[in-house]
Design a protein that fits this description.
By secondary structure, the chain is of the alpha+beta class. The chain has nine helices and four strands. The protein folds into two domains: 77 residues, no CATH class; 114 residues, Four Helix Bundle (Hemerythrin (Met), subunit A), CATH 1.20.120.
Length: 202
């Protein structure tokens, strides 16, 4: 068994809203770990991700920190670098579709405002991360990756970006104040900007 920390705590991006992301590697998932607290992967599955050059494999390769090893070996370090990331086009299309569908739902006055805004933040973040995996020597895995792309950074007022981020935290962790209609009205005028920005990264 090997346990790793990854995510914002290993990047030094800790905020009051941060949690500690933990990865458990096991031969077989036998229910030892609470899945709300750990991402549980078998060794076979993690090696599959390495062979695919999956973005999560690169995230772990660059940012995971070993917490526990029952054989005194850093398993992820021992398997070397993941294969080259080659799935940008399909990943981009997946997240661009997610963004577009969520914008459509919000324009049609959905009752799931927090969920759809959360999806938009997820799409913006993941498109940015995948873009850096394809184009940068050192990819960026920050939740603020979209603001760190030099001349291709997304251009949104701080309060709009923060509203999307609040929605993501509220949706995934249940923390924070609920979004008001005023919050949603701040974001709505920028839907076309978000789609145009993403199209540039294609």
């Amino acid at each position: 068994m090997h346990i790793y920390a990854f995510g914002s705590v290993t990047r030094g991006e800790v905020t009051p809203d941060s949690d500690v992301d933990l990865l458990a590697l096991v031969d077989k998932d036998e229910g030892n770990f609470v899945h709300d607290a750990y991402s549980v992967y078998t060794y076979d599955r993690i090696q599959e991700l390495w062979r695919e050059g999956n973005p999560f494999s690169w995230h772990l390769h660059y940012e995971s920190k070993l917490v526990f090893s029952d054989d005194n070996v850093n398993f992820l370090e021992s398997i070397g670098s993941p294969n080259t990331y080659l799935s940008y086009d399909s990943d981009f299309n997946k997240f661009f579709t997610l963004m577009s569908e969520s914008i459509d739902e919000l324009n049609n006055h959905t009752n799931s405002v927090v969920f759809e805004l959360s999806n938009i933040f997820l799409a913006i973040r993941n498109i940015s991360i995948c873009y850096t995996l394809k184009h940068y020597t050192k990819p960026i895995f920050s939740r603020h990756a979209a603001l760190m792309l030099d001349d291709k950074s997304i251009t949104l007022p701080n309060e709009v970006y923060q509203t999307l981020e609040r929605a993501r935290i509220l949706c995934t962790r249940g923390r924070g104040d609920n979004l008001s209609e005023h919050d949603v009205s701040l974001v709505r005028p920028y839907f076309s900007n978000m789609l145009e920005w993403a199209s540039i990264l294609k």
